[in-house]
Amino acid sequence: MVSTKNISPRQLSLFTALILSVPVGLLIFFIEKNWIWGLGSFIIIFGGCYLLITIVLERFIYRKIKLIYKFIYQTKATRKEETYYKYLLPQKSIDEVRADVEAWAEENKQEIEVLRQNEQFRKEFLQNLSHEFKTPVFAIQSYVDTLLHGALENPDVNRRFLEKTAKNVDRLTNLINDLDEISKLERGELILYKQNFVIQDLVKEVFESLSVKAEVRNIKYGIKKGCESPLTVHADRDKIQQVLLNLLENSIKYGKPGGNITASMYKTDGRHILVELSDDGIGISEKSLSRIFERFYRTEEGRMIDVTGSGLGLAICKHIIEAHGQTIHVRSTEHVGTTIGFTLDSKRD
Q1: Are 208 and 338 contained in the same domain?
Q2: Which one of 157, 232, 238, 294 has the fewest CB atoms closer than 10 angstroms to its CB?
Q3: If you write DSSP's letter for every residue of 235-287 in order, what string do you get?
């Protein structure tokens, strides 16, 4: 039995013509008592109705449907598409056409939603960018104005103000360098120089380079017990060092005084190494977890603790790890601590 759900226009024409011609043919047969008249009437009426209904459906209804398809694809039809519209489209059922239009509508709905999100992201980005530049620029302007209006002649003041101005200039320079780097990363212009190296050796090197900052806050650091056995990874050593530096600096900034920072490394599936850095600091709220890798995004607690950061460090980490074809993740609980980890390829022969 033919399903009426997926019936094509020509099948519809056929069934409609049958419904019209069979009763008329039978009526003429009973009136004339001649099967030739009845059969002839049936054939003529069936053929006429079929042609008429087919022409109406294809010329009027499917002409409109063809315009809908052209609007959906928003293009001047190629020869191949014209063939599709002429021969294949009329074979589609109304339900199939409806499904195509609904799929197109859903796709456009998703695209519009993405555009809205991107527009919101753009506004937040410009707002954050303005804020990050405004703070050091206004500070520099204030110090310079003060120096120009007499403080330059006061030896007790001028050096202190010049040192503060220099710090804000350094902050601007770092911000511009970070922006330039993340722009290159997002454009896919990062060139990786991969090599084999022991990840524990690099972690120890990073710990040593930031040991003074850790000691100021009395934070202890080290590699987790059981993870000391050397694991060789295949990656860009300098870039991974940059990732570890950014992560460790964050752990020191947001770790609790007298707390601990622990690095751990594990083999996963034989082809990858998992590297994690854990602290017992202020943690990250659940609502912020999904956004911490966005450019300039910082939690309110983070802004209060570190007013000089650019908010680009984690975004840069994410792009570097993704440039390696790997993933970075975060687990965190407020007032308990944070663990950020990423994977790397294991040793290549």
Answers
A1: yes
A2: 238
A3: EEHHHHHHHHHHHHHHHHHHSPTT-EEEEEEEE-SSSEEEEEEEE-SS---HH
Q: What would the DSSP string read from start to end of 92-161?
A: S-HHHHHHHHHHHHHHHHHHHHHHHHHHHHHHHHHHHHHHHHHHHHHHHHHHHHHHHTTGGG-HHHHHHH
Residues 247, 324: one domain? yes
**Full-model pTM:** 0.58
CA distances from 343 to 210, 277, 286, 292 (A): 23, 12, 23, 18
Q: How many Cα atoms within 13 Å fall on the side-chain side of residue 37?
A: 10
Range of the domain at 77: 9-92
Question: What tokens were used for 340?
Answer: 């950020």
Distance CA 146, CA 125 (A): 32
* Cβ neighbour number for residue 185 with a 10 Å cutoff: 18
- Count: domains in the chain: 3
The one-digit pLDDT tens for each residue of the chain (349 residues) are: 455 555 666 677 777 877 777 787 777 777 777 777 777 777 887 777 777 777 776 666 666 666 666 666 655 456 666 565 555 555 555 566 667 777 777 777 777 877 776 676 666 666 666 766 777 788 888 888 888 877 777 777 778 888 888 888 877 887 777 777 777 777 777 788 899 999 999 999 999 999 998 999 999 999 999 888 999 999 999 999 989 998 998 899 888 889 999 999 999 887 899 999 999 988 888 888 888 887 777 666 655 555 555 567 888 889 899 889 999 999 988 888 999 999 999 988 7
Token pair belonging to 62 = 């499917």
Of the candidates 197, 262, 207, the one whose C-alpha atom is nearest the C-alpha of residue 231 is: 197
Distance CA 72, CA 93 (A): 18
Residue 266 domain-assigned? yes
Residue 249 Cα distances to 269, 279, 327, angstroms: 29, 11, 20
- Position 100 in a domain: no
Q: Please indicate, yes or no, whether residues 236 and 318 belong to a single structural domain of this protein.
A: yes
